[in-house]
Amino acid sequence: MNNTLRYILAGGLIFLIIILQPFYLEWLGYDAGPSSNENTEGVNSENFYLPVQEKSPKSSFEAKSNKLSASASDQESFITVVTPLYTATLTNKSGGSFVNYFLTGENSDKLKYLGGYDDDGFFQPDIPVSLIINTEENCMPCLADYDANDDRYNFLNQPFTLLNFSNQQDTIYLDYGSIELKYALKDADGRIIINKTVSFYADKYINDHFYDINDDLLEYSNNLELLWYGGLRPTEEKEDEDVTYGSGIISQAGEIEDLQSTDPDEILAREIYKGQTDWVAIRTKYFMSAIIAENSGKYATLSGHNAEFGHRKHTPIYHASIGYPLDVSIISSSIYLGPLDVDFLSQTGATLEASMNWGFAPIRPISKGVLWVLKFMHNKLNLNYGLVLLLFALLVRLITGPLTKKSYESSQNMQKIQPAIKKMQAKYKGDPQRLNKETMALYKKHKVNPLGGCLPIMLQMPLLWALFMVFRTTIEFRGAPFMLWISDLSKPDVVFTLPFSIPVYGDGVAILPLVMGATLMLTMRMSSATMDKSQKPVMYFMNVFFILLFNTFPSGLNLYYTAYNMLSFFQQRSIKNKLANQ
Questions:
Q1: Residue 381: inside a domain, yes or no?
Q2: Which residue, 71, 97, 45, 75, is CA-closest to 250?
Q3: Arithmetic mean of pLDDT, 227-231
């Protein structure tokens, strides 16, 4: 296979991956949600077509024979927990529902996660990431039941009484270890209806929520659900990033299902997924809120709608819950609220990393291996991720070097015998069988494999695909600077913005794609020195196409490809010189 066909093949594959992105994301599991009448192994779903409407919250829970304590229902209080990783503020409503949650972990004396939206819905690049949007339901999390007749949730969101820390200041500093906040919901006679304990840890993004329910005092008619109602605050400046990667997710018996909003005018009907539920989650591009059941729930639910938030047109808000049997009296769960970082996700003991986009099943082990190597080099060598990517490009170049050498040598040998092949084609143009026989004899004589140039490229495709998946979505590159104008390896290295947008290219002018294009041009010119002149315009077109395509890619990905291409150029030049001296 000659160079032109190889470049066309590579360009076509990348075109299918990037340009046809909606289909590509669907293949990777980012579907718009399970179909209404479809059951999958381990996950049974039942679709209720009544949408979860935005009605005022309703609390139908009452104490048997006694109303809930009037004093408790009149008083709302807040308490803030400050840890090295985050600052969380809870209301006593719902027995400890989050009203604020800022990520304050540091990296090299700077906040690790910067850039987010303020309470007015405007993106601020210099504020810590905030994950909570305040809602009147105060259900992050809470107990609730769903009234199908009235088409809404009944929230158990009355104020609880804080039993400890009540006589101390409203801010708790947790530098190490853990603490417990103890809440109680009481009736008018002071009897405890629900005891709830919320535990926080200094070194984890995990908090435990334990409910002890007195069935003799609490009256409810439907299954209790542990519910996260109100989604997550968006965190990315480009609206489509949180929309594309965001979803509500459930895990049952190792199977994953998700629900995703694709239209700002769409209300996602409440889906019930029957089966033993391990966890439910809501994610944006880089962050997640997950409810993890210590004892599997009876079913799970997902729903959602578009919320008004600042000037954004599309801000999907997902709701997720785990349902329990009617006779439940103990609900023990953990909530993970933090970054999509495999190191922190693994601390939960659940399979939350399955919600991350690792690619197709055969690609996933490679993607995880790539990320492990990058994190290892960053942590052990104490290098910023820009230098890590350069070092990783060198490592991959050393691994793939023999394949590239074989591919280039095969390509050069094929070009040498092209004149002889053209003569045979002219001589035997009326005899295809004889032409094929003579061509194969020529290949054998010169020890040329026509697939020799293509096969090494195909063998590298799984690695290249895995690199694409890791570099495009890993949180490690979010906000990670390199040097000079490259301030965020998760975003394009745009130096100025055009007053108009170019199809495929976008409206920002990035430097690294131009440098990468220059390295491709040098490599193409060297490898096409003996190529037919009529084929060269195709190669130059492919080079321009790559520049346009890569302009919107993260600068970390472009930095890697640029370094890789430069090393490839020097290797091919060395091989060419050796072949010329033979």
A1: yes
A2: 45
A3: 93
Is the pLDDT at 231 greater than 80? The verdict is yes
Biggest CA-to-CA distance, the chain: 105
* 332 shares its domain with 395: no
- The CATH number linked to 50 is 2.70.98.90
Q: Considering only 30-44, 52-66, 512-526, 542-556, which range has the smallest mean pLDDT?
A: 30-44
pLDDT digit string, tens, across residues 98-153: 999 999 887 666 778 888 898 888 888 888 999 998 888 999 999 999 988 888 89
DSSP 289: E
Handedness of CA 541, 544, 550, 551 (dihedral sign): negative
Check the CA dihedral 175-140-259-332 and report its sign: positive
Cβ-contact 306, 319 below 8 angstroms = no
Same domain, 233 and 125: yes
Task: Give the tokens for residue 524.
Answer: 């193409």
Indicate whether this model's pTM tops 0.70: yes
Structure tokens at 280: 């439910």
DSSP 103-120: E--EETTEESSEEEE-TT
Instruction: State the Cα–Cα distance between residues 428 and 107, nearest whole angstrom.
Output: 69
First to last CA, the chain: 23
Question: Is 259 in the same domain as 297?
Answer: yes
Q: What is the pLDDT of residue 33?
A: 37
Rounded Cα gap, residues 69 and 435, in angstroms: 95
Domains identified in the chain, total number: 2
402, 347: one domain: no
- The arithmetic mean of pLDDT across residues 551-573, rounded, is 84
| Shared domain check, 307 and 216 | yes
Q: Among 356, 388, 423, which residue terminates a domain?
A: 356
Q: CA–CA separation, 283 vs 304, rounded Å?
A: 13
Same domain, 90 and 194: yes
The answer as to whether 362 is a domain residue is no
- Calpha distance 170→453 (Å, rounded): 68
SS3 285: coil
Domain region containing 342: 29-356
pLDDT at 93 over 90: yes
- End of a domain among 286, 321, 356? 356
| H or E element, residue 170 | none
- Same domain? For 15 and 44 the reply is no
Q: Both tokens of residue 30?
A: 């980012």
Buried b (16+ CB within 10 A) or exposed e, 260-274: bbeeeebebbbbbbe
Q: What's the whole-number mean pLDDT along residues 327-348? A: 91
